[in-house]
Amino acid sequence: MTRHLLKNPDLFREAALIDGQWITETPHGHSELRNPATGEVLARLPRCKEEETTRAIVAADKAFRAWRQTTAKHRSQVLNRWWSLIVENKEDLATLITLEEGKPLSEARGEIDYAAGFVQWFAEESKRVRGDVIPAPRETQRIVTLKQPIGVCAAITPWNFPAAMITRKAGPALAAGCAMVVKPASQTPLTALALGELALRAGIPPGIFNVITGGDTRAIGGVLTSHPLVRKVTFTGSTEVGRVLLQQSASTIKKCSMELGGNAPCIVFDDADIDTAVEGILVAKFRNTGQSCIAANRVMVQAGIYDALAARLAERVGQLKVGNGLEPGVQIGPMIDAGAVSKVEEHVDNAVAGGARLLTGGRRHALGGCFYEPTVLADVAPGMAVAVQETFGPVMPLVRFERDEDAIAMANDTEFGLASYLFSKDAARIWRAAEALESGMVGINTGLISNELAPFGGIKQSGLGREGSHYGIDEFLELKYLCWDGLHPSFA
C-alpha cells in the first residue's frame, strides 16, 4: 500500500543500500516497520548485522579513494543534482516521513526543505575548502596547510527528523570528499533509503552513500565505532547512547561529533511581547509533537505576566488539532511508539501529584494508540521530572520566577546545554541573558532557530562539534601542515 501513495513508487525501497546495490535479503531475516498513527505494517526490511556493516565500510573505503581525487567543482555539481532531485520529489519524501514517523504532512514538507538546504549549502561550501600559507621562521622555508577529507564516515541518525539529520551529515561529508555509511533509526529507514535512491540517480558513485537497515543497532554500531577504516563517527541521539559510542570509538581514536540530548529552557521576561512569545513558544514546544532535541522543555515565565501568558497558552494549545499526519489540518501527530507515550504519562502524573495544575490536556487522546493530548501544566516546580528530564513529548510545563538571575540559575541547572530561548524587548537584558545561558544556541524572540547557515550543536553533555554553516564541513576534514625547506631567498 505504501508504494501506491507515492508519485514515484521507485522511491519506496525495502532493501539496504550497499555499494550501489539494493540488498533485499540477509541471513538474519527481516523486521517489520509500522505506521505510528495506524499501527499498520508499512514495510519489511532486511536485518543487517556485523557482516553487512563491514561490507558497506569496505565498499565505502574503496569508493572514497576515487571520490577524494575528484575536483571540488565536480562534487559540487553532483551534490547540486542530488539537491534538485530532493526538491523535485518533495511530496513523496514528505509522505514517507509522515507514514513512518507520524509528523503532520505540512511539517514533513518543511523538513524536506530543511534537509535539501544542507545539500545545496554544502554543494557550494565544497568549492570553498582551502588551506593557508603561514610566514615561516626561516627565509628558505614556507609553511603550508592543507585540508583533506578524513575518509570513511559513519552516521547514526535518529527517527525524529529522518531526512534532515542525514543530509546535515552527508552533505558536508560528501562535499569534503568523504564516503559515508548511514545507520538510520530502525523506526524511520524509508526516508533514508529514498534519499539513497536519489543519490544514485544524481550520480553519486556506488559506495559513497550506503544505508544499513535493521534494528540491531548495538551490533551495527559496534562495527562502525571499532572498524579501523572508519575515521569519523557522527551521531544524533540521546546522551546515554552518545557516551557509549564515544567509549567504543576511543579504541581506534576516531574523530567524533555528537549532537545529544537537551533540556531547553525558554525564559519569558515580563517586558516580552505576549503575542510574539505565544507564537514562538508554540513552535519551540509542539513542533513534531514535542519530539525534538531543541524543544522548549521548560517554560519559565516572570511573575508579572505569568497568569496572562498561561491562560493564552492553554487556550491555543487546547485548539491544536490532533490526528493522522496525512489528514488535512492536523497539527499534532502521534508519538513514535507506546514507550514514548508512557514516559509522557509518567511525567504528567508525577507533576500533578506534586502540586502542578493541568490547564489543558493531560491524558491519552481519544484516538488511542500513540496519541497524547497536547498539555499545559502550571505551577511546575523546578525539581519535578517534567522539568529535570527531557520529556520529548507534547507537554509544556510552566515555571514561575521573580528575578532575572533566578531564571538564569534555573535554566543552567542541568547537565545539558543544547538550546535555550528567551523573549524580551530590552536589548541590555537580552545580551546579559544570552551570554549567561549555558547552551550552544539561543533563540531570541523566536522558536525557530534551525537552518543550514547556522552552526547547530551544544555544550556540556549535549554534545561535541557543530553541524551546518561554514563550520560544518571542517568536521569532515583533516588539517595537514607542510614544512617546505630548501627554497632560495627571494630576489633582491
TrEMBL record:
GO MF terms here are: oxidoreductase activity
Q: What is its EC number?
A: 1.2.1.-
The protein here is known as NAD-dependent succinate-semialdehyde dehydrogenase
Q: Which keywords appear in this protein's UniProt record, sorted alphabetically?
A: Oxidoreductase
Cited NCBIfam families: SSADH
Family listed: Belongs to the aldehyde dehydrogenase family.
Supply the source organism for this entry: Variovorax ginsengisoli
Calcium recorded as keyword: no
The active site of this protein is located at 259
In this chain the Aldehyde dehydrogenase domain maps to 23-481
A Pfam family that this protein carries is Aldedh
